[in-house]
Amino acid sequence: MSDDGPAMPRGSVSRTARLASLPLGAAGRATLGLGKRLSGRPADAVTAELQQRTAEQLFAVLGQLKGGAMKLGQTLSVFEAAVPEEMAAPYRAALVKLQEEAPPMPVRTVHAVLAQQLGGTWRQRFSHFDDAPAAAASIGQVHRATWRDGRDVAVKIQYPGAGTALMADLNQLARFARLFAALFPGMDVKPLIAELKARVVEELDYGLEADAQRAFAAAYAGDEQIVVPRVVASAPKVIVSEWLEGTPLSRIIADGSQEQRDRAGYLLAVLHFSGPQRARLLHADPHPGNFRLLDDGRLGVIDFGAVKRLPDGAPEQIGRLARLALEGNAAEVLAALRAEGFVKPSIDVDADRVLDYLRPMLEPIAVDRFRFSREWLRREAIRVGDPRSPAAQLGRQLNLPPSYLLIHRVTIGTIGVLCQLGGEAPFRSLMQQWQPGFAPPGTEQPPSRR
Predict the structure, then answer these.
(1) Quick one: which of 93, 211, 389, 431 has the most CB atoms within 10 Å?
(2) Burial 322-360 (b: 16+ CB within 10 A, else e)
């Protein structure tokens, strides 16, 4: 494969140069202006031209780099709903493009990887193979093909050198963390990058991803709400699975009907809550490019590179804390938070203030039906993100235990997509059905398998 050249720019100098081409000075001014806008002060420094140029350059570089840069961009894109509308509009098209498109690797390289992974006679496994990629993932691209038995399949192929490039990207992006504040104020990107780096090895192993996809496919086989394509064949750098036709959630976010938005949001929540109980796995990459709404009304899930293994299902403590908070039991909430490590022993906080901090976040599960919206998420972002607010000051005293880090990020990411969709659904009943600890004591507990 070396004759074909690398599919990803791996040289640290060239990759660093591309990252350095990002408009850091402009981003710094945009950050200042956006901070003023969020807190209600004038933001004359932020102009429409600056916003558009920053977005176009930022996501052009992320898309070209693929690897860690594209993965970080996809991860951050789910938080776009938290940005004020007048600021978010110039970014939206670039975000959607990043989720759905990326420059392809050379055809010769594609064939070389397939020969290495599936054998020199790889073509005999397919009755047809489309050399033009149908989609791009953060560390690979997808081709449409027809398997030898006539099934339409998706062939996911990892970029050569993806591991080296992925780590190089993430190491460099950590240095430019301030740039992303232009899009996502109040978000500390460095811990997010550190977490992505910690999961690189697992996500580069397509064998692990194929196993996770098989587990989800078995758990949801014949399901009326969720469909997971079956794995046809797999190798360390190639996965062949059944093709899934449907409308990408990114398109529904852009111009879907309210019925589509409600349905997609509801089913995304079904997957989030039921996965840990049914598959003993949490789907951990909730960006819109990973989901399709099928014509029959089911939600298709097409990427399993990031999962959280939960052999005992979703932690009961999460449901119990939410229930206690909604019941107004401030003392019990604080005691439970201390027991789980959310409040360190050396920290002295007022139980009622902690409850006041948590309660607005739980509004979606405090009522029978709730409509997620960009406006709701922005209010919460300002409430907990403005350094001058009491909520933000209290939040800095709380701790996020490592065992909850990924669950927390996936939940926040899912909420970001739900707010982009603007869907309404009975989220509380889903929580009661699937989340251990949330239903009142003495009532039926969520099923371990269904």
Answers:
(1) 431
(2) bbbbbeeebebbbebbeebebbeeeeeeeeebbbebbee
Q: Which two tokens stand for residue 436?
A: 């251990």
For the full predicted model, state whether its pTM sits above 0.85: no
Q: Which two tokens stand for residue 225?
A: 């709400």
Are 158 and 237 in contact by the 8 Å Cβ rule? The answer is yes
Show the tokens assigned to 353.
């203030």
Q: What is the mean pLDDT of each run of 10 residues along the chain (450 residues)?
A: 41 50 42 45 44 55 53 57 55 53 79 95 97 82 96 93 73 62 54 70 86 97 97 96 94 95 98 97 90 97 92 95 96 95 90 94 96 91 80 84 84 92 96 94 62
Cα 397 to the center of its chain, rounded Å: 26
Q: Encoding tokens for residue 435?
A: 């989340």
Measured from the Cβ of residue 178, the count of other Cβ atoms closer than 10 Å reads 13
Cβ(334)–Cβ(354) below 8 Å: yes
Distance CA(425)–CA(370), nearest Å, equals: 6
- Per the CB < 8 A criterion, the answer to whether 81 and 183 are in contact is no
CA distance 124 to 149: 11
Residue 286 · residue 78 · CB < 8 Å: yes
Token code pair at residue 55: 């977005």
Q: Which amino acid is at 257?
A: S
Shortest CA distance to 140 belongs to which of 267, 16, 241, 58? 241
Question: How many whole angstroms from its chain centre is CA 340?
Answer: 25
Residues 6+ apart with CB under 8 A from 437: 315, 316, 317, 318, 319, 320, 321, 322, 323
- Contact status, residue 170 vs residue 196, Cβ threshold 8 Å: yes
Q: Which amino acid is at 356?
A: D
Closest CA to 439 of 363, 339, 326: 326
3-state SS of 250-303 is HHHHHHCCHHHHHHHHHHHHHHHHHHHHHCCEEECCCCHHHEEECCCCCEEECC
97 contacts 121 by C-beta, under 8 angstroms: no
Place of tokens 């119990």: 320
CB-CB contact of 406 with 393 (8 Å): no
* Cα–Cα distance measured from residue 213 to residue 283, given in angstroms and rounded to the nearest whole number: 10
Consecutive H or E run containing 135: strand 126-136
Instruction: Please state, in angstroms and rounded to a whole number, the distance separating the CA atoms of residues 264 and 323.
Output: 26
What confidence score (pLDDT) does residue 30 get? 43
Residue 17 tokens read as: 């140069």
* Residue where the block lists tokens 């927390």: 408
- Which residue type is seen at 353? R
